[in-house]
Amino acid sequence: MKNIVLRGALLVQWLLYCNAFGSVFMLSLYMQTVLGHSANTAGQVLAIGTLLMAAVAPVAGILSDRYRAALIASCGVALVLVAALMALGLGGGSHLLHVGLVLAVQGLGFAFFSSPNMTMVMNAVPPDRAGIASALSAGARSLGMVSGMLIVGALISVNLGHDPVGADPDRLVATMHASFWILAAITALALALSLPASFRSRRQRA
User: Fold this and answer.
1) Which listed residue, 3, 58, 68, 132, has the most CB atoms within 10 A of its CB?
2) Among the listed residues 75, 60, 78, 77, the one whose alpha carbon sits nearest the alpha carbon of residue 116
3) 3-state secondary structure 45-84
4) E strand or H helix at 38
């Protein structure tokens, strides 16, 4: 708790990863029940974000070694926020391309965040504490994903109750919009917390 850099990086990671599971879960239901696509098609679209993250994350890691890791991580948080806001435009007649674009932007956001943020975490502790820092980072990621699922699960429970998720597509879309509003607010908080670290690292270099 006394390590400001480590504490900030873990807090932002926890908040940002609320988007990881919650948004993918909601978009999967949305594509299958509202847009009427098969589970196979929904899975292929969901893979877009993962593939982009896997391809771009190493590049973000290289950039974080050469430039300010905090600034690159903040750019990633901003992209995830943009993706959450884009998801608010999805409705009953949206094209699958719109969903893919949301996932692509989100995947790029996580790619630009994950490696630089991990660089900040590992550089914030002495070498003999690297294992603890890595474990804390993994815990923050898991806690964020569980928190996101709790938010989405609670909204589904309140708005849909025991009805099948596909029984009322309009209510499902409304629930999805409420979920993304909350996730966007959480991501905006993460961005507000990550930006000061970017300026702090600039002053330290100066």
Assistant:
1) 68
2) 60
3) HHHHHHHHHHHHHHHHHHHHHHCCHHHHHHHHHHHHHHHH
4) none
Which residue has 């771009």 as its token pair?
Answer: 56
Supply 20's token pair.
């990881």
pTM score, two decimals?
0.87
Asked if 176 contacts 49 with a C-beta cutoff of 8 angstroms, the reply is: no
Give the contacts of 102 (CB within 8 A, at least 6 positions apart): 27, 83, 86, 87, 90
Quickly count: other Cβ atoms within 10 Å of residue 195's Cβ. Answer: 16
Alpha helix positions (H), the chain: 4-16, 18-29, 39-66, 69-87, 96-123, 130-160, 169-205
Half-sphere CA count of 12, side-chain side, radius 13 A: 34
Token digits of residue 168: 């009322």
AA letter at 170: D
For residue 106 the two structure tokens come to 């989100």
Q: 205, 71 in Cβ contact below 8 A?
A: no
Each residue's pLDDT, cut to its tens digit, for the chain (206 residues) gives: 787 888 888 999 999 999 888 889 999 999 999 998 899 999 999 999 889 998 998 888 888 878 888 888 889 999 999 999 999 999 888 899 999 999 999 999 999 998 888 888 888 888 888 888 889 988 999 999 999 999 999 998 898 888 787 778 888 899 999 999 999 999 999 999 888 766 655 444 44
Spatial distance between the Cα atoms of 103 and 83, rounded to a whole number of angstroms: 7
